[in-house]
């Protein structure tokens, strides 16, 4: 028993001596220092990765804003191309994405900011039977200089892509007592106003009609700017 204990003690002593000798070798010392330095860099690398990810997100947001500015209309006209209609309609029926917003458009360079909102499977009394189309007044940069409530005639149009050009159109004058046309204060946009029964699904699905072609439809919105006061 005593011999085994002595043997173990001798082995431990030799192990300590070997480790001490290894530490004294310059290459091993450098390797050890490099490992310690790398360990110290790990938190910095993680933080750097987070910074890179944040930077990429900001760049993507800026790119989206530039694209919106490039495609923005300032003459009170919106032409909205909706691709993948069948897929988007299915999403609406299944409740995943019940409505879509268009890109913003403007009534003048310093005028009202607006957009369109569409429910491909209908909204309210039109749900399940019609496509609903609405007009939305958004919060803009120059609202403080504009007259309120919004009082300009709005035309909502579904474009016929056939040679017949039998466009479907509905237009209305804003109700001055409706909150939909007051200056947006606490939200980015007002409650949408428009046509819950804009067009029946039976009309869209009719093979003799070409309101949907190549799984794409076009929506046009016109705002009458004839009486628009310049800022």
TrEMBL record:
PROSITE patterns: MATH. It comes from the Eukaryota. Pfam families: TRAF-mep_MATH. GO terms for cellular component: cytoplasmic side of plasma membrane. Keywords: Apoptosis, Coiled coil, Isopeptide bond, Ubl conjugation. One of its GO terms (molecular function) is tumor necrosis factor receptor binding. Residues 75-223 form the MATH domain. One of its GO terms (biological process) is apoptotic process. This is MATH domain-containing protein.
């Amino acid at each position: 028993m005593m011999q085994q204990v002595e043997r173990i003690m001798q082995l431990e002593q030799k192990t300590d001596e070997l480790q001490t000798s290894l530490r004294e070798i310059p290459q091993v010392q450098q390797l050890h220092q490099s490992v310690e330095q790398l360990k110290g860099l790990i938190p910095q690398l993680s933080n750097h990765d987070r910074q890179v990810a944040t930077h990429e997100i900001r760049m993507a947001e800026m790119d989206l804003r530039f694209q919106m500015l490039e495609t923005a209309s300032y003459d009170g006209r919106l032409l909205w191309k909706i691709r993948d209609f069948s897929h988007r309609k299915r999403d609406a029926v299944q409740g995943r994405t019940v409505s879509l917003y268009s890109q913003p458009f403007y009534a003048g360079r310093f005028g009202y900011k607006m957009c369109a909102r569409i429910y491909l499977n209908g909204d309210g009394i039109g749900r399940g039977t019609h496509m609903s189309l609405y007009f939305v007044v958004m919060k803009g940069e120059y609202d403080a200089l504009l007259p309120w409530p919004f009082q300009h005639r709005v035309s909502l149009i579904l474009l016929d892509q056939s040679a017949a050009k039998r466009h479907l159109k509905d237009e209305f004058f804003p109700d001055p007592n409706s909150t939909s046309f007051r200056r947006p204060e606490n939200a980015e946009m007002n409650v949408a106003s428009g046509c819950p029964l804009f067009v029946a699904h039976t009309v869209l699905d009719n093979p003799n009609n070409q309101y949907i072609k190549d799984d794409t439809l076009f929506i046009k919105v016109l705002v009458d700017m004839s009486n628009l006061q310049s800022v």
